[in-house]
# Entry
Amino acid sequence: MKEIIVTGQKRNSLGKKASKELRKQGFIPCNIYGEKKDDNGNPIAHAFSVSFSELRKIIYTPHIYVINLDIEGEHYTSILKEIQFHPVTDTPLHVDFYEVNDQKPITIGIPVKLVGLAQGVRDGGRMNLSIRKINVTAPYQQIPEHLDIDVTALKIGKSIKVGELTFEGLEVATSKDVVVCSIKMTRQAQQAAATAEEETPATE
# Structure
């Protein structure tokens, strides 16, 4: 995984009013959840804020990053956990980070990359990508930037499911029955097949 540095400031004032004021100033309220837990067993959140310009680097990108947070001199190694967007403007309202370490595996969605020209596409079919990410579990140092899936042998009407895939050093966490990609018959391919069938002489 690629690494990136993000700088933040501690939040002393919490609540909706304080968060709204932060957004007016160009900052986004954030929390980071670490190993420490409260009396009820819930992770303790550390509140801070990050400028919208800083967050753009990790929100509007297809890449998965290990994020080195610098919050007024306190350093955290983290990953992006959840982003809350405005339902109308689609701007980020709140961001949660999750602290990671060398020992504890994490589960994270990794982008899928289809490799090769599928036989079904050569025959006139259309590739249909059903999911863009597959959840995997591993120490964060072993998490790749993307998951390569060879589709060269995939034919029209066939699909690849998560259960058929294995990745070295990674435990797949997405359900085995989920379809990753498939090749659909196009109208053009149907017509070509019908024409070929009509032109084939009948055997006596």
